[in-house]
């Protein structure tokens, strides 16, 4: 009797929550992935923006293996050097004052929401609890972060959702101002500078500045969700740095630890003392192995790399703009959305057949390659993508 295939095992034992592509990846080497048959693929998805320096990155491996051999876990009742080192680096690179570590983007956003509500409760009482988010946003898959998400498609099946959220259209300052002026319960505005799951849609810089200024004047906290846009993805360490604002709270995850589960919530001088002993916690948050991996990532996100991220993103745009079947291109840096005349999922499937991994977001093909993808490899992959889009136009 032959051993069961990965498909059989998946079907039999794994909850059917994913519409998986028909491939099983077995190993990786930088921006290349290999399936169980040995077929090679160029990875333009990086695990949805997670493997910032590609698969099996040598420096990341070295940092993680070194830590595995020393200490894999202690509770957060005790100090660990990797966690403290990572917190210092994040604060020094951003100007933020404190960090709380968790395990995912949703948890980082939960922490941000809790902090915003406690900040207002401490100063204004328990009635100031509403967090404003934007239509078309995505903030996670817990009950609370689904409630925060401004897409009706996610507000099904799991009722009752957490109360205390209001959604306003993106890039409509008047709608935000009208809501703030009419509702005294608002404590925070949470925004993604680029709505990733919403179709790789950047916000208007003028709108972001207006909202931030108005919020500050009313002591409404500005929370920026950098779960997908953070850690060098857009050409700056965090995308808000290109929008001329200084957030009160920043959440991040995905690319932070290079493939290990880690989220972080950063606080400025206004919010650094809100969470006191016992008000929040995490068993695995800031795990020393994850933190060691994250240090190896953050240490390499420097000006030279960020310049390359911008240049490679510009290359993608120039290569595809005006190409047959391409309607529009959105995004920043190496976070790119491509609107096409053909179905985006069909394009992703055909690219996979030809050895290129791409993602989708709404009706767009989405690219999130490793930050250090070699230019010749990027050129080859974009050429295949361009060919597929043109053939399916």
Automatic annotation (TrEMBL):
It comes from the Bacteria. Its cofactor is pyridoxal 5'-phosphate. Pathway: Amino-acid biosynthesis. The keyword Transferase applies. Keywords: Amino-acid biosynthesis, Aminotransferase, Pyridoxal phosphate, Transferase. InterPro entries: AcOrn/SuccOrn_fam (IPR004636), Aminotrans_3 (IPR005814), Aminotrans_3_PPA_site (IPR049704), Class-III_PLP-dep_AT (IPR050103), PyrdxlP-dep_Trfase (IPR015424), PyrdxlP-dep_Trfase_major (IPR015421), PyrdxlP-dep_Trfase_small (IPR015422). Pfam families: Aminotran_3. Belongs to the class-III pyridoxal-phosphate-dependent aminotransferase family. This is Acetylornithine/succinylornithine family transaminase. It comes from Veillonella magna.
